[in-house]
Design brief:
The chain is mostly beta strands. The chain has no helices and 10 strands. A hairpin with a 2-residue loop joins strand 8 and strand 9. The termini are close together.
């Protein structure tokens, strides 16, 4: 389930060369911007969060962190890691799939 609110005064146009991290999400592309996620919808930009977060696949011995090789993106009160086209966020003893 997604909850979205319109990001009213969004003058920046996101795209492949805008400089923000991006990840494919369902049938659209999400852009990480100012600690939240945006995607274009019906001529405006939505700020989106996917709730509830699902547990991501087992990472085995891999631990996301500053030197793990995955892009780190500030997201609210935590850091997401862009991993294989989706976002992972540390949560307890596992990672959440965002």
């Amino acid at each position: 389930m997604s909850t979205c609110t319109i990001h009213a005064e969004h003058t920046h146009t996101h795209g492949p060369d805008c400089g923000h991290a991006r990840v494919t999400h369902d049938d659209h592309v999400d852009y990480f911007h100012d600690g939240h996620v945006h995607h274009e919808h019906a001529g405006h930009w939505d700020e989106c969060e996917v709730t509830p977060h699902a547990v991501a696949e087992d990472h085995g011995d891999h631990t996301h962190g500053p030197d793990c090789g995955h892009e780190a993106v500030e997201h609210g009160d935590h850091v997401d890691y862009v991993h294989d086209g989706h976002r992972h966020a540390p949560h307890g003893d596992h990672y959440d799939e965002h």
